[in-house]
# Entry
Amino acid sequence: MQANQPGIAPPAPPPDDPSGLPALTETLDQLLSSRTFSRSTQLKRLLVYFRDAAAIADPGAWSETAIGAQAFGRKDFNPRLDTIVRVEMRRLRQKLDEYYASEGAALPLRLRFEKNTYRPTVAPNSPPPVEISLAPAPDSPDRFWTGIAAGAGITAFAALLVGLFLMWGTSARDRAPREILENQLWSGFRSSNVVLAVGTPLFFRSTEGFERNFHENLSDDLENAEQYLSQKPAYPVWNLWAPFDDVAGAVVLDRFLRTLNSTVTITSARQISIGNLEGKRTIIMGQPRQAPLLADLLADQNFRPPKHVPGKHFAGFLNASPNPGEPPDFPGGGAHALIRQTDESDPDYALITSIRLPNGGEVLNFFGDRAQTAAFVARKLTEPAFLSELSARLFEHARSGHRSAQAVFRVDYTRGAPTGLVYVTHRVKFADTK
# Structure
């Protein structure tokens, strides 16, 4: 983009208008020469574009398509397929907060953006009326929702909370159907204080922002982080993010457990251990790479996590004693399968496990390799028809209550999102078996 075009002159702001073009240009120049933005090549390209576009005063310059094509050089840019503008704008807003909290704290004006647009403007540099901390306090379940909201997107999560509030006002007061109240998977969770532990991925934070590498999941992997991370130095962030779908699944379970006359405490699955399960009712939603205690909890079950090799992608689960015709494992599809939705040549599998512990605790866990799977299973486990079919398979020949029950399902992703669970196999250990 040329900074000046013949026949187009920027509108002259009033002499006393601090938010006019001169103030905007000066503010952008300050950012471009700052230490905070000195190593952010992409963000500097964005700031230069804003400075030049402001001088031209073309309203079309503030569209996502124009920014993608001209600021980032994406020929035939399609915002429905390419998210670079949204991603970099999110990074820019975070970087601006960092700059004005430190290097630019004494400046009278700061860069802001008009509501629901990418058009920059300047405003008095005063703290926002409400500040949201993205870092949850250690061992503080009450603060975990803040971390989940960061991973899901603050706006989207706020909408979920509004919807949850409306649901509590009506159907949350209803009792669950009898077939759910008497179901063996849920009977122990009635009229209880339930801990809902949501799995959280490992992220790394550097001066350039956040980074996720799927070779890095557990504390054992940190020794290999140097070779995988693109930005260094960086430090691990364990409990800050959660997939959007897991947030939705947690909302569904919270609502459902209230129909069982139970209360819910939500925490990160990384903050609990085997010792925390004694005498408690616990739901763990997530894959073992996001909930490390599952490696120990499932170690003596037929379907269990594979042996973890530091620095290797941790996915899928093993079949310790395959029945005739069963595979020895149900592999995760690798890092790319976490976001792939339609490739059924490498399907996802869901594992549901219910364990009644000798110490009086009871645990329900479910996970798949793709981010959407666990949330989909959470919804299915609250449906009476699905529960009836699952219980008929697991407990048809029950002689007593179960010690553990596991079921494997193939997840139907043929329509781009999970639409069904196809039964594969199961295992049950009853209380009267040795």
